[in-house]
Each structure stands twice: as structure tokens, then as C-alpha cells.
Amino acid sequence: MLGTLQSKLTEDLDKLRVIILTANGPVFSAGHDLKELTSKEGREYHMKVFQLCSEVMSMVQDLPVPVIAEVSGLATAAGCQLVASCDIAVASDKARFATPGVSVGLFCSTPAVAVGRSVPRKVAMEMLFTGHPISAQEALQHGLVSKVVPEEELKDQTMSIARRICETSRSVVALGKATFYAQMNLERQEAYRLTSKVMVENLSLGDGQEGIKAFIEKRKPTWSHGNKTVH
Amino acid sequence: MLGTLQSKLTEDLDKLRVIILTANGPVFSAGHDLKELTSKEGREYHMKVFQLCSEVMSMVQDLPVPVIAEVSGLATAAGCQLVASCDIAVASDKARFATPGVSVGLFCSTPAVAVGRSVPRKVAMEMLFTGHPISAQEALQHGLVSKVVPEEELKDQTMSIARRICETSRSVVALGKATFYAQMNLERQEAYRLTSKVMVENLSLGDGQEGIKAFIEKRKPTWSHGNKTVH
Amino acid sequence: MLGTLQSKLTEDLDKLRVIILTANGPVFSAGHDLKELTSKEGREYHMKVFQLCSEVMSMVQDLPVPVIAEVSGLATAAGCQLVASCDIAVASDKARFATPGVSVGLFCSTPAVAVGRSVPRKVAMEMLFTGHPISAQEALQHGLVSKVVPEEELKDQTMSIARRICETSRSVVALGKATFYAQMNLERQEAYRLTSKVMVENLSLGDGQEGIKAFIEKRKPTWSHGNKTVH
């Protein structure tokens, strides 16, 4: 599953503008297959599984297009980690989120990397120590998802965000996404040094100049979606 | 008081599974005794007081068992810092939280370490600059506490979380808690490197394998609570 | 505008106790003038604009007095960044906040430094990728502002916070503000080392001792607002 996700996320990437991760049925994802994690599979196999999992989670943020989680059911353990790793997450009002590994003696330490960077520490710890699920509303309140909508509007509302992204320039979005994650790891002054340079670079992109020109001329911009610069 | 807290928190630690910090009366804790902080006590004494205080606050997060704050009244200054330093905090709907040091000319700079890492920066600054208390609901909204319950349910609800933790493996919880705080200080890729290793280590624990086996066999796990590994 | 802001923010700074940034009309600030950012102005000019902008935003946090944003209308792009950069932000219930640069092909990368440090990552990304505004209530829920009040109470409520700050000691507030931002960049133990020293320093200030004395004697303190120390 992780291998499939990894190859599907990069397949035809050049033709994509936005990726929506969703699921069929009542569960978004329940994380790892516990049978794969018994001692008979061996230590080296386990290491491979968790390394691959971490690669996939990191890849989501490193892709040049926005990745949206569309969550209608239960997202637990690495499934909750996947939601936390996406750029945007839209949840049905019936969705729930949990890190229940502690119940089976396997603390959700890898999910905690993503969840701990999404919600306040106390909320993360209560989820991790008790395994209890939080509701979609609590997930919104604490920042794990960015929007909660009625179950029946989930697909439409997610698609509406995706369509909005498709109206923008691919290269501008790619530059913006990469810069966002890069600057968040820096101290404020360094973050401003990096982003000031990026703003100037963005302005020298064909699409940067076309967008501003169109705005001044009160017309729709015509994007090239490319990285050509103008002088 | 800080000295007592420090020795009590480590006394009989081997027999404990979870610690609840609570108070009798209408005040959870009002922080330092201001009479100890007058100039006649002297600079060296003051330094000792704040070093001890910081040690106690840090110790809460370094203990191998979860520490829950059960807050029914007012928590101010170092008392608010103590709530912010706990792993989990359950508050009565009548609880209030403040960092009012600025009113007596002593800015809550040490409390700000814990409070500033719990709530959004603007909320922290408004609390620190004005000294005004926030309500339990605001504390929940901003991440200072993880749950707010009616006053009369406070003990039961806190105990219910504690009991839930007692159903899990002590060694798994200890590993999970230590790893959580360690990885939160790391950059994402390093955090995944550390936690991937910890997941494999967790799986090699007797309790890691017992938990998964019990899950597959649809029975309750029998924890050893120890650090024995299996092969 | 940025130049004016920069010089006004430091003019007569010694006589100020608190700064309120507000606007006339329905827009708090819409950020950069796009005409200044066309290719005919040139790369070097653009670099100057963004460097100046970053300096002004950083300066807000480096000033020795609290800076409050009073927001009644729309705050977009660098205007939203300015709100995010203030110490405290009070918003009218009709205020809205957006980072819509992506629509004109210029991703809000510099605003993202301040906004990404104020709201959860998913909320920031949805704002940045779609350009859609969030409401005052959402801004409060996610930590971009610290208070939302009815439009007609905006000036009074902001002034009430400002007045509260004027009742405290200038030198204590200056020490507290500088220390807050310094310790937030440090790892927890280092943060406690720094702030413990600052608490002792604060206690040796005349105003530190006067505040505590007044509290014990149940009277109003008489602040010197200076940096004189006592022994």
C-alpha cells in the first residue's frame, strides 16, 4: 500500500495540478497492517516498513503540487499521520481521528511527528496516551484539519478547493509550497531573507508578471505554468 | 513547596503509572511567594528559587509516566506554568488562567517559556502584557488545556483518563513519552529517523509483541510493563 | 508607506508606552502596491521593497513597547502579515484576513513567514493556496488575532488593553517583551536558563522591588519606568 502510494504520487506528476487523497468505505486509513509487525517478520523488515512510511509522509510535503486529504471516516495511527502530513485537509462532520497504538503496545511515535506538529502538545499527548479518538470539530479547533463540512458536501467542497487551485499558476504554486516548508524551519530573520529573495524570483517569472499585468488591466491572467523568467 | 513537589514527584516513581496534580480550595496555584522575592532575600537566593522552579517544570516532562493537571480554580504565574508544563490538563469550566506578574513589576518570563509553547503567540502576549485571566473555554480553544468539564465531573473525568493509561503498558508509555519530547525538538526528517528506530525498538519489546498478538487473537493483552526484548 | 511606518514607529519612541496600528476606511491594509512590482521597476528595486517590508515587520517585534493591531476591515497580503507580526491583535467581528497573492501570480511567501508562525499549518496553506479570506472568528480560533469584538466596541476595547498596559512599568514590559521573543527561539532548557537569569535581573530593578513592596503593603505601586537597579 505504501509502495503503491509512493509510485502513484509521482506518476504523471507533470500533468497534475493538485492531488486529493480519499478512501472508499467508512475508514480513511487505519495505518499499518499489524500482522506485518510481528516478531516473525524480523527487525530488518520492520525498519524498512517505517522508513518507507516516513518517506511517503515526507514526500507529500515535498511534491510541487498541493495535496488535499478528503476524510469521510476514521483515520487512525499512520492514517491519522497521513492526514496530518497533507497540505490541506477537509473532513466530513462524521470523521474521527485517533492515535491508538498504545492499546496494542505500539506507541504511535512516527504518527506523533506529524500530529505533534499539527495540534497543541496537550491535545497530542492525550490522543497518544489514551488512544481515544477526537471528533472532526475538535480536529478543526486544534488545527489537524482546515475545514469541516457536512458529509454530503464533502466531495463538492474538496473539489471546489481543488478547482480554485487549478485557476492559479502551477509554477507559482510550486515555488510557494516549497518555500513555505523551507522557511518554517528557519529562524524569523533568516526566513525573511529567504522569502524576500523568493518574492523577487517570483516577480521575474513570466506568470508573476502576467498575473500583475492582468490585475492592473482588469482581465483574467493567461498562465504559462512554466519557469521562464522575464527581464 | 517546590522542593516538596520535586521529591514527591520522584518518590516511589517505580510503583506509579500516572501522576495527577491537583489542589484543595479555590486556587490551583498562585505561583511564587512574593515575600521570598524581596531584595532582602538577595540575588543568590532568587537565582536558586528560579533554578529549582525550572527544574521542577522540566522534570514533569522528563518523568517516565504521564502527568495530568486537574485544575478546578485559578492557576496564575508559576501555577499557570505548571499547568502548561503537564502532559495533559483537565480543567473545570470554572477554572481560570493568568500570568499577572507584570502588575507587581515582575514580568512572568519563566512562565512564558511554558505558556508560549502552549498557546498562540498573540494570546500569550495579551496574557503577559495585561495580566488578565482567560477562561477554561479559552484555555481549551488555545491549547493550554486538553479538556474542559463541568466542575462536578472534574475528578471522575480526570480519573477516567488516568485509568485508561493504567490499562496500557508502562514501558511502552515511558518510551512513547520520552520519544515525543525528543522528536519535537528536531527537524522533520531527523524526527522521522529517530521515531522509525524507536518504532522498531518498541516492536522488539515483550509488551510490543504481546499487544499485537493479543489484538490478532482478539483477547486482552497481559503486560509485563518491563523492558525485556524478544527476538 | 513602509518608509513612513518605519520612521513613525521609532519617532518619539521614548515617550510612548504602547502603539496601536489602525486604519481609516473599510480596508486595514491591502499590502504592496502591485504597480511597484512590475518588471519595469526592476529587480533591484523589488529587492529593496521586500527587504524594507521585512525590516518593518521584524521591527514591530523588536520595539520595547507592545504593538497592538486594531483591525476593522480587510487585511490582505502584507497587510495580513502586519497583523500577524503585531504583539496583540484586536479585530472587529466584520474583519477578514487573506493572503491572495497566488491569484495575481505572486505567492504570499513573505506574509507566510508571519502567518505560518501564527496559525496552524493547514489553515495557513489553505489561505495561501486558495487566497480565500477567513473571518474574524476563524482568525481568533486559529490564533491570528487575540480578541474579536463587535465593530462598535473596537476602539474602546483596544484602548482598554492599551490603558491596562499604561498602568504597568515601562522598563518591566520592555524586558519582558524582548525576553519573550528571545526565549521562543531557544530549546526549552536553554529558554529556562535565559529566563531564570532575567527573573533575577527583573527583581533587581527598582520597579521590580517597588511592585512587590506595594503588593505586600496593599497599595498602588509608583513606577520609575527606568532601568535603575537596587541592592
Automatic annotation (TrEMBL), chains A, B, C:
Signal peptide, first to last residue: none
Pfam short name (any one): ECH_1
Claim: Ligase is one of the keywords in the record: no
GO molecular function: hydro-lyase activity
UniProt record, GO biological process: fatty acid metabolic process
Key words of the record: Fatty acid metabolism, Lipid metabolism, Mitochondrion, Transit peptide
Listed SUPFAM superfamilies: ClpP/crotonase
Gene Ontology cellular-component terms listed: mitochondrion
Annotated localization: Mitochondrion
Job of this protein: May play a role in fatty acid biosynthesis and insulin sensitivity.
PANTHER family, A to Z: ENOYL-COA HYDRATASE DOMAIN-CONTAINING PROTEIN 3, MITOCHONDRIAL, PTHR43602
Record protein name field: Enoyl-CoA hydratase domain-containing protein 3, mitochondrial
Lineage: Eukaryota, Metazoa, Spiralia, Lophotrochozoa, Mollusca
